[in-house]
Amino acid sequence: MNPGLTRRVVLCGLAATLLPTVGFAQDAGGTVVVYTPSPAQAVEAATDSLRQLEPNISLSTITGGSGQLLRRLEAEAAAPQADLFWSSSENTLGGFREMFEPYRSTQLDAIPEALHHPEDLWTATFSHVVVAMVNTDQLGDIPAPTKWEDFLDPAWKGKLAIADPNNSSTAYTILWGIDQLMGPEALEKLAQNVTVNSSASSILRGVAQGEFVAGLTFEANAYAYVAGGQSEISLVYPEEGTFASTEFMALVKGAPNPELAQRTMDAILSKETQVALLESTFRRPSRSDIVVGDHADLPAIEDIKVFPTDETEAAAGRDAFLARWQGYLQSAN
């Protein structure tokens, strides 16, 4: 990997460079409660950066699956407990839009206009690419997969895993994309082979430890194991095309600390924090002023065949799709 600037170097220059131009490190402070499905490494990187950018603000994070946390926001709507939700795809957030307050971040100009929400209900944080995470030591007689169609072979039954799309926006993005790319018949065949686990993190651990041969996940999640030295882990970008999904952060409607939450959002979207998150968690920044290859050994997005999907359509069709997927699983069992 070409690590570029280390996170330590990045953070050391914050006070001298960024603070005067974007208005961070204001005097008023307090605690911002963030509901997040982000992994511990991402939370740590964001927290470290926030200490430099906004030393008077501390984060209190509640973690869990995106669907689980969004339903919690819904249950708390009369008396919100969270200030920020960080982060999930639009196909999942769209079903909970009433939970969020519009906010136009000071960092928005660095984010491509195509990723802007027309009402500023949420702001793009990362762009993810879907991959198959494969443990090559566990393949045995199964040919190494190169495309989605390979996973429809009965030889993969019980050897392939995915998270529950009811709780995981990652899983929902993957399954919706496969349905759009290959059609319902392919999705039904996939349901006959795949094992559904309760959380996205359990898929990663299962593949890394050899419980599963492969798992369907986001690139950043899988690459963390490659960067950690597990040479048996490979990332497959399916030949038919894979799916890119943007994750978004949102200000909770009726947040207890809205001004602090806005400042926290701006800090997390800053170039310095986005670089730190790329180097520590391999998430592709939403900002257009960061070259991914300067900081992580990942392919340029231009070199990946991406099949476009409509996030608005995915959000609108979520309930019907999940019911259909559940029916496929019940038939398979």
From TrEMBL:
Record's keyword terms, sorted: Plasmid, Signal
InterPro entries in the record: Ferric-bd
Highest taxon in the source lineage: Bacteria
Gene3D superfamilies referenced in this protein's UniProt entry, alphabetically: Periplasmic binding protein-like II (3.40.190.10)
Leader sequence segment: 1-25
Ion transport keyword on record: no
Protein name: Extracellular solute-binding protein
Organism: Paracoccus denitrificans (strain Pd 1222)
